[in-house]
Amino acid sequence: MLSRKINSGYKKIKENFIKKVTLKNINETDSSVLFELQIENFWFKDKSMKFILESKSQTKILSYTITNNKVSVELPIKLISELNEIGHLKFYFRNKKMLIKSNVEVNEDFIFNGAYFHIATNKHIILKRNFQEYTFHEEPLIVDDIQSDYETLTLKGINYNFELMHVKEPHVIAINKNKMRQIDTVIDLSTNNITVKNLSLFSQGDWLFYLRIKKEIHPIRLNYSKTVKLKTYHHSASIMKTNKSYMKAVFSPHVITLDSATFENLDQDHITLSFSQQELELKGNAKLIVEEPDGKLDISKQLTKIDDYSFETIIDMRELFGNFKVVRFFVETGGIQPLKYQFYIKQKQMLNGNAKSFHSTVNSQITGFKFYRRKDKSLGLMIRKPRLRKLVTDVEGFSVSGFLGSMERFKECKPYLLLEDRLEQKSVKYPLAHEFTINFNPIDLLGIKSRGKTVIDLFVIVEDSSGYVIRKEKIKYEKANYKKDNYYAYITHDDEERNQHHFLITTTPFNNLKIETFMIPNFVEIPSDTSRKDNKTWLIGERTNTAQDNGYILFKYLQRETDLDVYYVIDSESEDYEKIKDNEHVLSFGSKEHFEIAFKAKVLLGTHDLENLLPYKPAKGFFNYENTFKVFLQHGVLGRKNVEYHKKFYEDPFDLFIVSSDPEKYDVVMDQLGYEEEEVKVTGLARFDRLYNVEKPRDILLMPTWRDWINTDEKFLESEYYNRYISLINNQELLELLNKYDVNLNFYPHYRSQDYFSIGLSENNERVKFIQLGKKKVQDLLREHALLITDFSSVSFDFTLLGKPVIYYHFDVRQFFRRGILRPVDETFLGRIAHTEEDLVELIKERLELNFANYENDLTQIVKYQDKNNCKRIYDEVIKGLDND
């Protein structure tokens, strides 16, 4: 008891010394915007405080006044007018940056000088100008009355004569922070009333309403004080006015408060859910809706009435077993105006019954099921498949040793170690025991190789009694020390034709084991001394199957403008090879000529790892690889996802690292990837030399990047990534928009996902076209489209350089950047961001209505040189590097 009092007293004393800063209010005057802050536990305020506005173009010290514990910071009109996109208002006390929090009642949006600004707090105050393509007017559209119906509002008594002003297709829009939603709008010219429909599409939160006439936007002001109630399928809404009398709608989910919920086992595969509540008299056609947050599950079950306020239904647990961990439950009322209710559980003790938490064998796996109260106090179900415990603990000779656990949770199943060729999925498997040592047989490995140079992945698989694979997971190495150019074990083996095969046990960046292999064909003559490299011989490549990126464009420049002996290497089975094979300096990967040039080339230039350039392992000890001059041309501009090109990941790193801007050089490649200043050169990417538009493109390009956590076919087809894009290209509203505006959506998936999406699209709408890898160059695709939809791909920078709009689809942004982001989101995602399919379709609709008008973007911090001399700068820097080598 005494220690508890001491701790409580200590916390109170500590609380009195912690400095706190809270944004309490924002006010506008004719000359400035005033930020009112409340400060606590500050001394010597006047002399020790400093408020600074930072933006890309300026850093300004702001004036302020103090009254007791209240600080008023003045942001002048002039500074706001100079703010092109985003500004950061920071507070320093005694040269130390203070954390600023926000009061929830702060008005976070305002219109100033024709621009719309959103204010947020994230450690400091962020002032962001949104929707720059529009002009916002402070003169409002006045509404005398509002009437509501199911998912519909009618605005009456409007002080605007649409017929007299010859206004065509005005639209009511709603804004929530950085999201703009256009609403179906019908204007009755005889009464001058506006009806807005389909309000079920709104998400939860506060939305401000405006009228948009072309690119002019006016706020809607309510000329009364009452609150109007509205019901949609998903939400209840309160229509009210803000402190400036502007029209605002607050959307919140329908909730049904439970008195109790009981879960009882009916048999091995079914449970009965019964619940009681006192708020809603449900009709006989009410249903229980079962959903998975990512949309991979959507089941409805008819509810059976027990009495006026109690219902039950039967749930088949087999339907809930999939590649997901959580499902949610709702009640749908049915009828011509259905409402979807979220359960509200006051206390977790309201959930009971013998099936509240249980285990069941599903797909030969003992799986845990638990009904629970979620953080938002709704009803959820957690599903836990048994964990497959596995690890390789040692690599010795060409054997691996390790352990496998948890097999008791798999019924009548057998585990194996599967070795699978990455390209063609040929495989061999070895039975596994709890503790195992497996010596890999070179004969087995030769039998599954798809080509001379390839990768063999290691998986643990579990087969059921029918031999069907129910689990497939990669296996990690306990002693992994990941570097791209090292290995843990190495053997060679000659086949019957005297081709020499090399096998190296290595790991991935995630410490998963793999076997890399390459072949020295019997027709290759290895020079007696490969240490002597020719400075005039340069070897260039991209991925082994492409010739359309920075590598090929630089290759063509060097052939045209220099006297170098320069070569480009590519797989002879690729689509791009057929287009360039007549050039005598184009080498077929793995050919005799390829080996000859690889042995003597001094300069290696690649857009990806140099595995793609060399027919052997790029590592010390292999044909004097360490004597080469290695140049990383890059595939795109760095600044988003944390990449695997850190200097620490190489025993023999790149000698020259090409970037496009000073922030990319200093903030990313030097500060985060560990390279020295002289190793990083700002030249711009070679492909920027070839960027130009074709005349008036009309179509939309959908070009998502890859997800590195998807590593099996099963995971891909069950992934949120796959299901989100399949859902998007089948979105009915989107297809109607494409037809209305006579526009095609051309889908160019990442090369790793091409096969999966090509199957999923085979029966799709004729407005959605699938672009096969290699049929078009990426540069041509960018030129031939008016709008790009991507997620995190750096190809967006090329599109922005062309002066065209980009929309980003960030449905899984947290998982994608789970290992960190190299630069802040607002610095590199130039355009608009959608987090839901609904928001994405709305942004596409907006661009179509505006004839693909571009957003206002500042590229100066992304691409330093916007000329056509990038290849020349790269060449000059390589020559300087060779002179100093």
Automatic annotation (TrEMBL):
Transmembrane segments: none annotated. Pfam families: Glyphos_transf. One of its GO terms (cellular component) is membrane. GO terms for molecular function: CDP-glycerol glycerophosphotransferase activity. This is Teichoic acid biosynthesis protein.
